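Request from the bench team (R.T.):
"We need a structural guess for the complex before ordering more pyridoxal-5'-phosphate. Sequence and SMILES attached. Just send the tokens back."

Command: build protein-pyridoxal-5'-phosphate structure.
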Amino acid sequence: MMTMPATGFEQENLFSIMESLKYQDTKWRDGQTFCLVYDGGKEIAEVNKRAYNLFMSENGLNPSAFPSLKTMENEVVSIIAHHLGSTGDVCGTMTSGGTESILMACKAARDWGIQHKKIKGRPQILMPESAHPAFNKAAHYFGLDIVTIPMKAFRADIIAMRQAITEQTAMLVGSAPNYPFGVIDPISDIAQLAQEYNLWCHVDACIGGILLPFFRKLGQDVPLFDFTLPGVTSLSVDLHKYAYAAKGTSVILYKNNDFRRNQFFVATDWPGGIYASPSMTGTRPGGAIASAWAILHFLGEEGYLKLSQTIKQTTEEFVKRIDAIDGVTVVVPPEMSIIALSSDQFDIYQIGDEMGLRGWYMDRQQSPPSLHLTIMAGHAKSVDQFFRDLEAAILSVKTISRKLSNIKIQMKKTFMKSMPQGLVSKMIRNEGQAIRDNHGAIPKRTAAMYGMLSSIQSEGDLIELVLNIMDGIFTQKSTPISKATKDSDKFVERVADVS
Ligand SMILES: Cc1ncc(COP(=O)(O)O)c(C=O)c1O
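Reply to R.T.: structure attached below.
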């Protein structure tokens, strides 16, 4: 077990430890990372840091203590509402991210459904398979049922959605765009369906809410997806994605105050006083609110349009060059800046491994197996290197040794499929335990692991395996990083060991 140091560290020492730790991390500043970080460049980072520092200790929970934060939050919400088709009534709050915005919308829809539609039992959310797992999380937390709607051309199948509506249905969901494939669900059809059946329609524009209106201004034919559609009840849009604000910034919008009231929480009988909180968290970091306000005002329409233009051109360049390579393909032509890269000739996870060894970070996706690319303005500088490395990666996967390992994966998969389920479960538990004992360390080459995962037929086994990995990841390692600090050589060794 790790203990608190008996005496404090020198600042110099402290920051050198943390700087060194960063070396293990993915190289997003070089344009080699395709998710998790939305890099707008150095100047934007500086503005974020200054704004965050200025309000780092302030707490948005109590607006009467910090009217500054109340003003900034309301202005941020108002700017974003206007950006997304409000003519005046749309309102909302800031939250800590897309997940919290979605949790809030689902909780509000649940309470509205129970009160206004008199839904008995567990209210249902109808959503396409591609919708973000934040909705599953909301269902898990708030006692809702998810009904998954199949996709047609990687978008929600509206006919199937209509057929799935029951008396329990509270909410219909569409994404603009969805995260795995980067295409937009038929939002106007979904919103119309919601109106027809008096249902709550939520648009998940967490990743597209900022960028899509700018793509439209740049001449792209973007379908309507926001409050210009009368059937849209709520919409989530993240500012820590394509608005480039600090992490921990999102906005949840509602058609009007009546819908938003379902989000708020009030406790009246607490000895500590009447407690009112607008969203999931209690304390609300002032730095995040300040960063969002600052960056919207720093960039303005002009700044966002310029960045959006680079993103649009870079995405088009990526698609064009992928199309020109034999063996890889985009799963579906993107409608914004997200590409799912797959292959009908090679194991795409092996290509992912080869790219990983060359410094590229891309998420592995399933159904169909693909690599995820969210394009940023910063990728404009790394596009040539990406394609040089992609060609090299494909060549490498074509070689005998990789082919052999592919055969081994196939054999293992076939073997697992023919084994009795009890034995497979035991084997998976053992593998999971080994990963847990190794502190959740995931090997550099993961193709075999992803190949195996796809052949696990029991959902229970898969969940057990992932829970074991998570246990391992969130467990303290036997040698604390700080033990090596008195001796910098040892510390470098330790970092190398971790990476
Ligand atoms: C479409 C969509 N919805 C929701 C989320 C969840 O956002 P967060 O990770 O900020 O909670 C994401 C994240 O990538 C997303 O792309």
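Two things stood out. The first helix runs from residue 11 to 22. The chain has three domains: 50-296, 300-383, 401-473.
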